[in-house]
UniProtKB/TrEMBL annotation:
Residue span(s) of domain GHMP kinase N-terminal: 138-226
Keywords from the UniProt entry: ATP-binding, Carbohydrate metabolism, Galactose metabolism, Kinase, Lipid biosynthesis, Lipid metabolism, Nucleotide-binding, Steroid biosynthesis, Steroid metabolism, Sterol biosynthesis, Sterol metabolism, Transferase
Designated name of the protein: Galactokinase
Protein species of origin: Monascus purpureus (Red mold)
Molecular function GO terms recorded: ATP binding; galactokinase activity
InterPro entries: Galactokinase, Galactokinase_CS, GalKase_N, GHMP_kinase_C_dom, GHMP_kinase_C_sf, GHMP_kinase_N_dom, Mevalonate/galactokinase, Ribosomal_Su5_D2-typ_SF
Residue stretches making up the GHMP kinase C-terminal domain: 409-484
Family: Belongs to the GHMP kinase family. GalK subfamily.
Any one of the GO BP annotations: galactose metabolic process
GO CC annotation: cytosol
Length: 515
């Protein structure tokens, strides 16, 4: 099932459209209670009901790790936890303002601030404040409106806001994307704009990059475009496109379990040695491979302008093979990386400059000046091989899901193997795993998962496991005993309750007007 990116974020009066499970058309008592609490909390706080509630969920990436910014296809889906934002537009003659509270005010204190009419709202990234994510949503939304409808008399709406988010922060299921997408959606609606999914995606990706991480668009795409019961096959090249892929029936129902490692790696702080360095390494691998194969790369829309997918395309064009099945094309670029990027020990700046026939200052100006990176050597071979092989696994995973309506044991073991290979590649070639995540995957596999891997940026964070419904209890028990209680002997019941969740593929962004 293909979705058209131009379609509007759906609007509904009923939360059942957002949350109803496949088994029933109603919502669970917990969901209803949370919703009622948000609306009554808003009414108590501000003295009237909200006009609408915007909603965006977290996501789990099933396969395709660290390849979105190289513009390769990925296969995430939304999870059921989300960020709900209740809003009322209020009249104001003076400076436009935002009053914002959280249903958990002890942890997330109430704030009030004004919104400049013509300039961007200021965000201090050094102050780790919960409202920063809302501000980055405002900034993206207002910038979009000013560019789309230039009108010097435009005044942003003043709003009262109450927020309820249950996506665990820093937990690898992208609370940040859920927060930013929901915030931008709320501000656009408050200013009378019904936004398309594509426009919301574009502005949310740019808004999140404002915190200094040169990420791809996977998280925001999954948060906005997902549909209940489907995985979201997401393509970034040559243009953004999504396809909803159903999970076929199997003898034992396929379940995805998400387990936190509780090891946190602050992405913004570690970016020069971790996330952004990988973005730089993949870009350098693309331009070096292009040079070695005598092909010219046109600029693409990846964050540094040259991606491995772009090299792939130009290489295939030169060979006259753009009509070949994508799988075969990917095999050829794997081959090229194996044969041509021979230095296992990595490449220094001098060596890369020499290959590109430019000077070191030119190299730095062209590829290493958008953001700081800390590295003596760039592991072009390993990073490119991870990317190409992971891209191949995504294609294989999707092909296997699409082949039949029912998966037999053989297919399921194959899917699990692809997930395990992805983990191994993240661990060895991409070096984005960590001992705790490796541990969790090993314990879970022993207890009966078909496949286990890290999900999200890694270096800690979250893991995802594919397992039969019948093994869920055994895997949860094993992880509790062999990981959580061992590593965190004093773990609270509340923390334990958030450590592992069964994640059902859920709906993406929604605008709910029936409050
Ligand atoms: P996390 O850190 O899990 O939100 C990040 C990137 C994604 C993608 C994955 C790795 C952001 C907002 N997201 O996810 O674009 O590159 O890592 O596959 O930085
Ligand atoms: Mg994130």
């Amino acid at each position: 099932m293909a979705a058209t990116p131009k379609e509007l974020v759906p609007e509904t009066e009923s939360i059942a459209d957002v949350y109803a499970s496949d088994e029933s058309s109603g919502v669970s008592p917990e969901v209803q209670a949370r919703w009622n609490g948000l609306i009554s909390g808003f009414t108590k706080l501000y003295g009237h009901r909200p006009d609408f509630v915007s909603r965006s969920p977290g996501r789990v990436n099933i396969i395709g790790e660290h390849i979105d910014y190289s513009l390769y296809d990925v296969l995430p889906t939304a999870v059921s936890v989300d960020v709900l934002i209740a809003v009322k537009v209020v009249p104001s003659d003076g400076e436009p303002f935002v009053k914002i509270s959280n249903v958990n005010p002890e942890k997330f204190p109430t704030r009030e601030f004004s919104v400049p009419r013509t300039t961007d709202i200021e965000i201090d990234p050094k102050k780790h404040e919960w409202v920063n994510y809302f501000k980055s949503g405002i900034r993206g939304a207002l910038k979009f409106l000013r560019e789309r409808y230039p009108d010097p008399s435009f005044a942003p709406a003043s709003i009262e806001v109450l927020l309820d988010g249950n996506v665990p922060p820093g937990g690898g299921i992208s609370s940040s994307a859920a927060f930013v997408c929901s915030s931008a959606l709320a501000v656009l609606k408050a200013n009378n704009h019904n936004v398309s999914k594509q426009d919301l995606l574009d502005l949310a990706v740019v808004s999140e990059r404002a915190v200094g991480v040169y990420s791809g668009g996977m998280d925001q795409a999954a948060s906005i475009f997902s549909a209940r019961g489907y995985l979201l096959y997401t393509q970034f090249f040559p243009n953004f496109a999504v396809q909803h892929v159903p999970i076929p029936k199997a003898e034992h129902e396929i379940t995805f379990l998400v387990a936190q490692s509780f090891v946190t790696s602050n992405k913004a702080d570690t970016a020069p040695r971790r996330y952004n360095l990988r973005v730089a390494e993949c870009t350098l691998a693309a331009v070096v491979l292009a040079k070695l194969n005598d092909v010219t790369l046109p600029k693409d829309n990846s964050s540094l302008g040259y991606s491995l997918r772009n090299f792939h395309n130009e290489f295939m064009r030169k060979e006259g093979r753009l009509g070949d099945p994508l799988e075969y094309q990917v095999d050829s670029v794997i081959q090229a990386a194996m044969e041509q990027l021979t230095q296992e020990e990595g490449y220094t700046r001098e060596e890369i400059a020499k290959l590109l026939e430019i000077t070191v200052p030119e190299l730095e100006a062209q590829f290493l000046s958008s953001f700081p990176v800390q590295a003596e050597r760039f592991l072009l071979r390993q990073r490119a091989l991870h990317c190409f092989k992971e891209a191949r696994r995504v294609l294989d995973f999707k092909a296997c899901l699409s082949k039949t309506n029912t998966l037999d044991e053989h297919h399921i073991l194959y899917l699990g193997q692809l997930l395990n290979e992805s983990q191994e590649s993240c661990r060895t070639l991409y070096e984005c795993s960590c001992p705790e995540v490796d541990d969790i995957c090993a314990i879970a596999r022993r207890a009966g998962t078909w496949g286990s891997r890290l999900t999200g940026a890694g270096w800690g964070g979250c893991t995802v496991h594919m397992l039969p419904q019948t093994k869920v209890d055994a895997v949860i028990k094993a992880l509790k005993e062999e990981y959580y209680y061992k590593k965190f002997p004093d773990i609270s019941d509340e923390k334990m309750a958030h450590a592992m969740v069964i994640s059902k593929p859920s709906n993406g962004s929604f605008m709910i007007t029936g409050a």
